[in-house]
Design goal:
By secondary structure, the chain is α+β, with helices and mostly antiparallel strands. It contains 3 helices and 9 strands. The protein has one domain (about 1-150): Cytidine Deaminase, domain 2 (3-Layer(aba) Sandwich). It has helices at about 35-45, 65-80, 105-110, and strands at about 1-10, 15-20, 25, 30-35, 50-55, 85, 95-100, 125-130, 145-150. One of its GO terms (cellular component) is membrane.
Length: about 150
């Protein structure tokens, strides 16, 4: 399962206020969003910025797979502060907040032309933790947020 992290700038900081659940097709190893126009329309109507994404690794540990790296590159090229949250409920740590390094991670992924869905990247320091320290993300239980589910009701 995956979601889109949306929010607004306040006093030169970005605050996530909405977990947007898009229409999606998921397998045990992948999640692909669908009907992106509905996501865009919701964000425009609610004056929200896309600040990153969240997804699960139901049976794997908490890390960024090659597919995750390519997805994150798409977010990060549009907004350098974008983050990826990985939830791995069967393992410790059970979640992580990540971003591609820049350089070397973001340019390496943007120049990758490997066709396989999952493949190796043979460079060090391709991604890093975004939570503080050492990163730019602060977590607080005092912030208010909500979930907006765009999936069709059956």
């Amino acid at each position: 399962m995956c979601g889109i992290l949306c929010g607004r700038p306040i006093n030169n900081a970005l605050f996530i206020s909405c977990l947007l659940i898009p229409e999606q097709k998921c397998t045990s190893d992948t999640c692909e969003t669908e009907n992106e126009s509905a996501q865009l329309e919701y964000c425009i109507n609610e004056d929200l910025l896309v600040l990153g994404w969240i997804h699960t690794h139901p049976t794997q540990t908490c890390f960024m797979s090659s597919r995750d790296l390519h997805t994150q590159a798409g977010y990060q090229i549009m907004m350098p502060e974008s983050i990826a949250i990985v939830c791995a409920p069967q393992h410790q740590p059970s979640h992580g907040i990540f971003r591609l390094t820049n350089p070397p991670g973001l340019p390496h992924i943007l120049n990758c032309n490997q066709a396989a869905m999952f493949h190796q990247h043979h460079i060090d320091n391709i991604y890093t933790k975004a939570s503080n320290p050492p990163g730019h993300v602060f977590q607080s239980d005092k912030l208010h947020w909500y979930v907006k589910d765009l999936r069709p009701k059956n």
